[in-house]
Sequence to fold (528 residues):
Amino acid sequence: MIRCFHVTKRYGAITALRDISVQIDEGEFVFLTGASGAGKTTLMRLLYRAELPSSGQLIVAGRNLATMARRKVPHFRRRLGLVFQDFKLIDDRTVFDNVALVGRVVGLSYTESQRRANELLRLVGVDDRAQLFPPQISGGEQQRVAISRALMTAPQLLLADEPTGNLDPDRAIEIMRIFRAINRRGTTVLVATHDPDLIAAMRRRTLILEAGLLRTLTAARKVSR
Amino acid sequence: MMRLDRYLRLCFGEAVRGLIGHRRTAAPAIMIIGVSLVVLGGFLLVSDNLNAVLERWRERGHVQIFLESDMTTSQQQAIAAAIRASPEVESFRFMSAADAAAQFREDFQELGDLLSFLDDNPLPASFVITVSEGSRSEEALVALSQRWGTMSGVDAAQYDLQVIRRLELGVNALRFVGAMLGGAVLLAAIITTANVIRVLVVSRRREIVVLRLVGATESVVRGRFLAEGAIQGLLGSLLALVALYGIYKVGVAFVTAGGGPLVSLIDLHFFDVFLFATLIGSGVAAGLVGALLAFGAATNVER
Fold:
């Protein structure tokens, strides 16, 4: 699903990622961890093609991102589900509209968008909040809404960048359970987090970034606290 | 590729939602589009009606032969006989100097008293001739005027087209001024619309970011702003049409109440389908151009 070959990303004189090579297979659930500034978000941004690598090759969902034309990026992104620490919900739209809008902008019919949004909100357990606005619900609920929005396009790959960064431990575990359920349905999941407790609780393969270098690829429970 | 009906429904649905949400921001742009189209449309309306008057006047095919004041009765009869004998003449009537004075008093009520201050009636007697339809070309009227103008006892022969030509120049000048003035105000409307849409784009930066992240194409991201421009233009032009209709109604009442020499020729009308569509199209086009000018703001939002 993801193949990085010697990927380096520089911002002027600063090298954010150095010679990253890694492979994540279809159906895997993988954590990406490291201290703040280690390059997790940079790698995530490369994976959803918000940026291009300075060198190296990056193949995601069968697409070579280095050679992808800009006009093809929207169609590529429909294969991905993106979840962020700050949820990125639209505050003046209801929970339901936040989710259903995605269906409509990618070309689904109005009815199909409504149906799928209802189904996904039920799946993540916030269907009773559908008519509220994001500021009216808790952080954990907002993140669930963001997850259901990410699933609207039935993505092959779910990328979550610090999805629990704004949540308490109990809510964080709930979010991880949702990710696990999504993964069980066949979606590849990559979660960037700096929370070792979460990684330990989930027991999944973990990539550790240190100052832009991919130091270790660990199996479950090997991440030091 | 998104289906066109879904695309339009999405863009216009989002545009309506956005404009309602930012109605206080959008109202000035709609107003200024409306004002600019009232200016443009007002000139169009006036010049179109004047054109219609000229057209009816032209279709009358009148030639007036002014007679010399010392003309004898036999000369007058000879002229009448010559006119009657002309195959180009449909009908004619004699207008004495007294009739001309009465007509003047009727047509120009405010000026009619002027004649009473004069010792003699200065208005000459004349024959008013209606030329048959087949001879109402300019060349034919010129030839007839020249022929009748040289007859004994005739002071001058004048045909309507000479006056119409002068009035046409006036109408064209009016139209030019209208286009210039309307164009200038329309330009201001475009700039205002662009600024309004720029504000709408900036206020929805977060939404644009989200849409791009979930896979919305640029045509979807920008389509809604184009739709917003088009709706603003449409509302502005509808506003202008309502205002122009009011002005037209007042104008009709004023013209028909005031009377005047051309009242019989005046058949005032509001916009026909073409001018109606032109005005609506101008408003929508102004909105669309404004939206296109604002696209720089959307381009700068993170991709």
About this structure: Chain A touches chain B through 29 residues (CB under 8 Å). The longest helix of chain A spans residues 169-184. The CA atoms of residues 140 and 171 of chain A lie 6 Å apart.
